[in-house]
Amino acid sequence: MDELATKLFDIQAVKFGSFTLKGGQVSPIYFDFRLIISYPAILEKVAGLLWKKCAYNANVDLICGVPYTALPIATLISVTNRVPMLLRRKEAKDYGTKKLIEGDFRPGMNCIIVEDVVTTGTSVLETAVELRKLGILVTHAIVLLDRRQGGKENLAKHGIELSAVFHVEEIMASLEKQSKVDHKVAEEVMDFIRGHQQSIVSRNPRLHESLEERRSSSKHPIATRLFELMMAKKSNLCVAADLTSLDEVIKLAESIGPKIVVLKIHVDILEDFSLAKMKQLRKVAKAHEFLIMEDRKFADIANTVQQQFHGGVYKISEWADLITAHPLAGPEMITHLFGDSSSDSRRTCGCVLILEMSTKNALTSQDYSKEAAKWGLIASDIVAGFVGQSPPDADFSGWIQFTPGVNSASKSGDSKGQQYCSPAEAVLERGADIIIVGRGLIKSSDVVATAENYRSEGWTALTKRITNP
Ligand SMILES: O=c1ccn([C@@H]2O[C@H](COP(=O)(O)O)[C@@H](O)[C@H]2O)c(=O)[nH]1
Known about the structure:
Layout: H1 2-10, E1 14-20, E2 26-31, H2 40-54, E3 62-65, H3 70-81, E4 85-88, E5 101-102, E6 110-118, H4 122-133, E7 137-146, H5 151-157, E8 161-167, H6 168-177, H7 183-195, H8 200-203, H9 211-217, H10 221-233, E9 237-240, H11 246-256, E10 262-265, H12 275-288, E11 291-298, H13 302-310, E12 322-325, H14 331-336, H15 345-348, E13 350-354, H16 366-378, E14 383-387, E15 400-406, H17 423-429, E16 434-437, H18 439-442, H19 447-467
Parallel strand pairs: 3-4, 3-6, 6-7, 7-8, 9-10, 9-16, 10-11, 11-12, 12-13, 13-14, 14-15, 15-16
Antiparallel strand pairs: 1-2, 4-5
Ligand LLZGTKA7 binds next to strand 15, strand 16 and helix 18.
Pathway: Pyrimidine metabolism; UMP biosynthesis via de novo pathway; UMP from orotate: step 1/2; Pyrimidine metabolism; UMP biosynthesis via de novo pathway; UMP from orotate: step 2/2
Pfam families: OMPdecase, Pribosyltran
Protein name: Uridine 5'-monophosphate synthase
């Protein structure tokens, strides 16, 4: 790595001085990796290191470079490792096939995106969008240099894991160690990078307000209650009790009740459901002060959803404090979810809108969640919060962000598309107010100790986020 950093410096692919960037900022460092093609040995080294970043992934069917600098790099990786390549055009031709993606592929194939520098991740994302339109799966991108300016987090939000050969800190440390730059320049560069590392989370005022302030701006009684419980119990832990027996759920709730603020269930996986047992669970919830969330993911027209909510065997409106709903059917479904304006449920139950899902290749795109968040804001007497992996553009400090896919023991997710992050990452990088932990807790041998660990990690991260904006 030191050798490559030196070579990049020597050929002036890494320059120091004063450079005006695309966004108008003046940067003390500039990376011009287009020069690499003039140095075949360096090009070969770069391609080799990039390939090492994804060779562990047995699922590479194709690679695709982001135009233009990464194209020769991707070509070399393709030829050396015998991995077929795709070519993405920047503009479609106005004659012939008019295709944006050239090459031979089948929908369902896995494609790795290759890039030279990632700042916000937009170029990688644009390439991923075109590939995904054709049914090609994109879950990984490899990059020579990650400037650490939010790209990794942005891509993760879209189900793409970014692996970098270098981070800017590593290049600077290496060049300083080899006396290529002096300490003052290295400091200046790092100050600039840190100053431009504003992630979505650090820009969002909701995430730095105290829970007390947010409690007073909340418009839904259940959101107000949840803020109070969080402060009183010093907990932002929701446990996904995905068990098939309600007796077992009750047993679990009795043991971890003091550590949690929400217990989330899926009523339709219970084999021993009865309203009497539900009453028992409500008693435990009252005694230990936590809310019950039914993760029903309502998604139909309002008329049907109302019946699903109030009727059937489960009579969800009789026992749930919170329910989840997909905003797919439009704003009317949200406003009529609980019934007409006189329905008691509007005050006794809060809707948690699913803006983004935690799984790979989820269809909850940025545009989708942006629109849905706007509807949620309008229906703030119904909507207590949202499920998501990041704060939406239209945000509101009285709303609560619930983030599932939290598991300290597994970084890679399960084998069925679920993706995981740690409690600290969920809170500090993704904006979670409440972390949702399922198998990471219910499968552990000591659920009480594990609940305490998640409570403490989640709460520490939340306190840190509020006190260090
Ligand atoms: O995007 C979503 C929405 C909901 N879930 C639910 O959360 C838990 C996660 O369980 P783990 O065992 O921690 O994977 C589960 O009940 C899902 O239905 C989600 O994972 N992602």
